[in-house]
């Protein structure tokens, strides 16, 4: 699975939370709720003897309850897009904020837990701007050759779905192609002339003044023909805590 921790920036300090949707944070700038969630996750995946539970993944043993922490400040979109272009995993769908700092926890594959996210340094007007970055799968096929062939095809033909589920149960759905066009203009019947190993959705705008304090917002992404969000929630669904 891809690591986004390389994009973590140094944190120089925190400030009191005064804006809608902003998570209370400590002096280190990290949301308090993120730290508490991290501790609960570690405790949940510890056996009766107190030993952390491990799982074998990609030829190495990983802590099953481990999480990848990331701090993505405003301006992380382009670096994240470049990072995702080199990803070689089952199809991912990762959100990035354009005008706020997004703090995320990503659970280990097999936990079936969605990514969790909190915001700091939110925009003064409360209009949160985000993009979802989606990637084609490299895991579809019976062997390495077939997986590569399918990956090359998906990178030209995938149509991605972006769903936002608001706290009141209302949903917003956008569909976009590998070139980021919505509605899709290329796909299986008209492949893109170039291969796109990561594609950015149209801009998402969430009004924090409307939704802050009313519950979580779930942001989901998946490709047509895939196993959907349920097939890989660890990298296809983000729960944004407001």
Give a structural overview.
The strands form three sheets. This protein has a seven-stranded mixed beta sheet with strand order 3-5-6-13-12-8-9, with helices on one face. Strands 4, 7, 10 and 11 form a four-stranded antiparallel beta sheet that branches. Strand 8 (159-165) and strand 9 (171-177) form a beta hairpin. The chain has four helices and 13 strands. It is of the alpha+beta class. The longest helix is centred in the middle third of the chain and has 14 residues, at 144-157. Helices cover 17% and strands 29% of the residues. The chain is globular, with a radius of gyration of 18 Å. The chain has one domain (5-240). The protein has helices spanning 32-44, 77-85, 144-157, 208-211, and strands at residues 54-57, 60-63, 67-72, 93-97, 101-107, 115-120, 127-134, 159-165, 171-177, 199-200, 204-207, 217-223, 237-240.
Distinctive features:
242 residues; alpha+beta; 7-stranded mixed β-sheet; 4-stranded antiparallel β-sheet; 17% helix; 29% strand; disordered N terminus
The side-by-side strand order for the widest beta sheet comes to: 3-5-6-13-12-8-9
Question: Which radius of gyration do the C-alpha atoms yield?
Answer: 18 Å
Main beta-sheet strand count, sense and barrel state: 7 strands, mixed
Number of strands: 13
Helix/strand order, N-terminal first: HEEEHEEEEHEEEEHEE
Mean pLDDT: 89
Please report the distance between the alpha carbons of the first and last residues: 27 Å
């Amino acid at each position: 699975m891809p690591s986004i921790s390389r994009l973590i920036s140094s944190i120089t300090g925190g400030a009191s939370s005064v804006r809608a949707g902003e998570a209370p944070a400590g002096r280190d700038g990290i949301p308090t709720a993120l730290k508490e969630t991290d501790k609960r996750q570690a405790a949940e995946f510890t056996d009766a003897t107190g030993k952390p539970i491990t799982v074998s993944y990609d030829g190495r043993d990983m802590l099953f309850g481990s999480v990848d922490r990331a701090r993505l400040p405003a301006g992380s979109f382009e670096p994240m897009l470049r990072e995702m272009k080199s990803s070689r995993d089952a199809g991912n769908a990762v959100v990035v904020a354009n005008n706020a700092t997004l703090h995320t926890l990503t659970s280990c594959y097999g936990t079936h837990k969605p990514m969790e996210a909190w915001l700091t340094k939110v925009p003064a007007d409360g209009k949160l701007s985000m993009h979802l970055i989606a990637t084609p799968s490299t895991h579809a096929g019976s062997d390495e050759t077939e997986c590569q062939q399918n990956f090359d095809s998906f990178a030209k033909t995938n149509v991605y779905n972006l769903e936002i589920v608001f706290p009141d149960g209302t949903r917003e759905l956008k569909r976009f192609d590998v070139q980021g066009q919505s509605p899709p203009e290329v796909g299986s019947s008209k492949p893109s002339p170039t291969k796109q190993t990561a594609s950015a959705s149209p801009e998402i705008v969430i009004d924090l003044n409307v939704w802050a304090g009313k519950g979580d917002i779930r942001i989901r992404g998946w490709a047509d023909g895939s196993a959907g969000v349920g097939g890989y929630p660890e990298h296809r669904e983000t729960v944004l805590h407001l």
